[in-house]
Amino acid sequence: MRIGVLLSLGIVALADKHGRKRVLVAALIGSCVITAFGAASTGMVWLGTSQTFARSLSTVAVILIAVMAAEEMPAGTRAFAVSVVTMTAALGAGLCVLNLVYVDVAQGAWRVAYLIPLIAISPCFRMARRLPETKRFESRQRRVAATADGRLKDRIHWRRFAMLATGAFLWSLFLAPAAQFLNEFLRTERGFSGILIAVFVLTTNTPGGIGIVVGGKLADRHGRRIIGAIGIAGGVLFTVVSYLSWGWPLWLASVAAAVIGAIAVPALAVYGPELFPTSQRGTANGGLQVVAVAGSSLGLLTVGWLADRVGGLGQAMAIVAIAPALLVIVVLFWFPETARRELEELNPSDHEHNE
């Protein structure tokens, strides 16, 4: 399914040409419909193919929601807006656990999980009638229409893309294995049962919501760089401690990692929409998602390889923690400060076209 991120890059680029609203609504409805195809799957090829396309459209929706939030919110509340969006997304993802209640009721009951997204189609149509296009995209379309050849040439910000791509790669290199190897770690190295794993994940991850909201507020007030660096450093430190702990220290360290690490989420996530002009915002953020997926894949392979050679997942996670340690330096000394600055100030090409 990770290959589908390349498809999402092509789709999200359409939002820079045809509008955020149009592509977002199409992606939301399309992902619901294609996900439902999984209910009729006769094998892994059908299931995998359908969900690859569904995941691509879901990725497009996530990117465009963040872009629209950044384009519409005031300069002093963009990070908080991203934190609220992240919280609601986490709530939706958390509700997926409820599918476990009925999957064992009867043979084939798991297919119901793929039909549930169809319920969201009607709300999507209602949203489409009420959701406005962003003012910044509409403004750019008017400027394009006013030119002689119907085109505006914006400078491609390759330096900014390289900077954010480096950050996304280093962060995903650690974050993906930390999350995806957790169940295996608890089961094989700490002897947790399936029920205890579910209780552990719910108990330790839920407080992270506090960190997301607080992080958004702090990033708007005190700046993205310092809040992002603190969240990364604290979250990674306690994650490594949790992977090297037993008993109640494992639980406490996991809670601390969730809360402190979550502080960095809105501070870092808002950079993507902020540092590119309107004409490139969708495409650039789609490209960053591709880089993040590459980092995730490499992180999973690296930790899996190291775990067999250094004595377990805890030691492997401690080694790959070098990546986010480098990220702290990158954020503090390379990333610009964008808090309380208008998007036109951060992207002079938009300002020039407005004049």
UniProtKB/TrEMBL annotation:
Q: Look up keyword Transmembrane and say if it applies.
A: yes
Q: Name one GO cellular component term.
A: plasma membrane
Q: How does it sit in the membrane?
A: Multi-pass membrane protein
UniProt domain Major facilitator superfamily (MFS) profile: residue ranges: 1-339
Pfam families from the entry?
A: MFS_1 (PF07690)
Matches recorded under Gene3D superfamilies: MFS general substrate transporter like domains
| Matches recorded under InterPro entries | MFS, MFS_dom, MFS_trans_sf
Q: What is its main location?
A: membrane
Membrane-spanning residues where? 23-47, 53-70, 79-102, 161-182, 194-214, 226-244, 250-272, 284-307, 313-335
What does the record give under GO molecular function?
A: carboxylic acid transmembrane transporter activity
Key words, A-Z? Membrane, Transmembrane, Transmembrane helix
Where does the record place it?
Membrane
The protein depicted here goes by the name Unannotated protein
To which species is this protein native? freshwater metagenome
